[in-house]
Amino acid sequence: MKQEVFVEGMKCEGCAKGVKEKFESIKGVESVSVDLKGKKATINTRSVIDKATFVAVLEDTKYSVVE
């Protein structure tokens, strides 16, 4: 299943890598690709993951999930 999440606060490839690693740490996530220009992460999952989970994993970082 493919899910898309928009992320604010990414300014460089290092930021994108950090967001990718955070999302990859979520149980059920199979792969993540981050589009820095589009401020978007595309996440392949085994089943639907609630948006609150993506928000929570970015807590205490300079990144945030947006609508």
From TrEMBL:
- Residue intervals of the HMA domain: 1-66
Which InterPro entries does the protein's record reference? Answer: HMA_dom, HMA_dom_sf
- Give the matching SUPFAM superfamilies: HMA, heavy metal-associated domain (SSF55008)
Give the residue spans that cross the bilayer. Answer: none
**Which GO molecular function entries does the Swiss-Prot or TrEMBL record give?**
metal ion binding
Annotated CDD domains: HMA
Report the protein name in the record.
HMA domain-containing protein
From what organism does this protein derive?
A: bioreactor metagenome
